[in-house]
Amino acid sequence: MMKVADWIISLCLLTSGVSSFTAPGRTSHRAWSTPSTLRRHMAEGDPTGASPPGPPYAGPAVKPILDSITSPEDMNRLNLDELKQLAYELRWETLEAVSKTGGHLSSSLGVNELTVALHYVFDMPEDDIIWDVSHQCYPHKILTGRRFKMAGLRQSGGISGFCKRKESEYDSFGAGHSSTSISAAQGMSIAKSMLKKRKNNCIAVIGDGAITGGMAYEAMNSAGYLKNRMIVILNDNGQVSLPTGTPSAGGVVPASQLSTYTSNLLVSKPFQDIRSFAKSFNKLLPEDIQTVNKRIDEYARGIVSGGTLFEELGFYYVGPVDGHDLDNLVPILEKLRDSPSNKPVLLHLKTVKGHGYPPAEQASDKMHGVAKFNLGTGVQLKGKPAAGPSLTSVFANALIDAATEDRRVVGITAAMPGGTGMDIFGRRFPKRTFDVGIAEQHAVTMGAGMACEGLKPFVAIYSTFMQRGYDQVIHDVAIQNLPVRMVLDRAGLVGNDGPTHHGVYDLSYMGCIPNLIIMAPSDEIELKNMIMTQAAYDDGPTVCRYPRGTGYGPDVLQNLFGYKLEDGQLPAKGEVIPMGKGRIIRRPGAARGKSREDRVAILTIGTRLHEALVAAQQVEEGDPTLGVTVADARFMKPLDVDLVRELADEHSVLITVEEGSIGGFGDHVLHFLTLDGLMDDGDLKFRPMVIPDAYFETGTQHEQYELAGLNAEHIRGTILRLTKRKKAPKLEDVEVER
Question: What protein family is recorded (predicted)?
């Protein structure tokens, strides 16, 4: 860390206009000239990151600077012009990689220059950079030795789309959910201080969406109070929700008053450069030097004002600063790094999500999450058309049907209107749509308050994010038995986003709460029915969970599920189904399963019903003596005990199948079987098929079902082993194989 005297000399030179001064002991990157080879390559594109002409859009043919970077340490020898060229090459490297794999694109483009500046100024892994959510970490991964692993981004056996501590020493803290970075940075800062580590630079990079989360406020309040040395970088790009601008009760503005506050700072103040920043820097000086510089500070306060909220929380506020301007970003970060102060700092950056790629800048969602796409045009490549509609749209349209019939129906989401279908509902009923930002706890309890006064709130949240509002589900909803309708999208395995986004725990964490009704549709018709059932039920809270994906379409529903569809069309509207009642979908074929020992029952909940039906067909086709019954439980709570008794009485084998973790539906069925004495005679074999007790990394949903052992072939194998048609492997052999 710089000596205070050297630091003051640097500050004085900056305030007097000598902006190219570099701290003693460091080589000045501004004094160097640009090599002729670099000038030649820079002519191929715009190293400032400005949007290229097009379409078609294309990056540089070669990337000489990026080719020379194998770790952040290699950046130390670069001058400012070379850093700008590196940022230009890095942007196109990110674009080229994501165009081939899909992933989170625009957030990475928006922090491209910031990533270059952070890795140039700070010394990872000794210094810690914590990316909130970390979906914007692709440039960081490329600069930290994973450039040639980007072809496997979010693929089975490849690298994660988020930061992951076990993946790289440069990933200081793993993430996937939001608003955690400031807390983690504070903890690291305290630990470094207590352990007397030589350096204590902890940087949290958090967006204007993530900073709306309550945990971020808790951390800022604590950091200011405890005066922990840390830098919080607020990446302000105006994208609070996905997508921002969904019609709602708050209008089409970002779902955050804090976003309005920071936007007002941006429009009321000019961008801060290194000179004006230096004039306001008195607050980070030791107290005796502050007295000497009081007159400078009085002058500076007339130039730089604002950031009152953050200053009241105990932070030194710097900004706003152009997050794409390396000329100012690098020296400001250097001064913050070298400050002797322990006061936490908030550096407010204004960035453009999708910066440097016009298709991303112009898209309503800024191309936040993309499939593979044409790099020249930005058009995303569509896969094979699905037979049925997306389940998210089925939910949204069913909710519109319920709201059309009942003016008391309202929708709540936590910054995910696009992901949950609330954007569809919002376009039809904007005044009945409430986007609360990244605030799941608030969303649940706000729904409870609405229910107290007679509204019918539907709280639509991803299963993985509902974990963040768990106490509110118990304390504010279930204990008071309030009719809040919770709808959990992305329940089960979600594919490429990996373990931070799998919704595999909700049956377990919801199932132990009294008063909750928990249901899971097996198909798109059942999803419509269950939304209408929730709307009609006013006697307590309900939960409906459904997976990521699409419906099956009329052909599968008729030929496999046995639906009788009028004119081969799906029903226009859902209907209320009996509460807590399951259904038998398939009975054994004729002349099969004549003895109880040859009869098998499969009881599923949710969309594993399809695989169970396929497995039943395969078993009967392969063995003329076996008969397989397949039932859909529909509800985990209340459990259809009459259906369970019937299956247990008439079959020698009962298998439950669910897309959930240990402790869910299968455990509830087993609990009932034992308490009801249905297993006392020893003539019933029971097996729960669940997601194993492990974290499932990136891959397609099908690959993850294979690993979890929940596809038709696994169900078939379980039946054959339990009926002694196939030898069962030892448990330890199964674990080794996995």
Answer: Belongs to the transketolase family. DXPS subfamily.
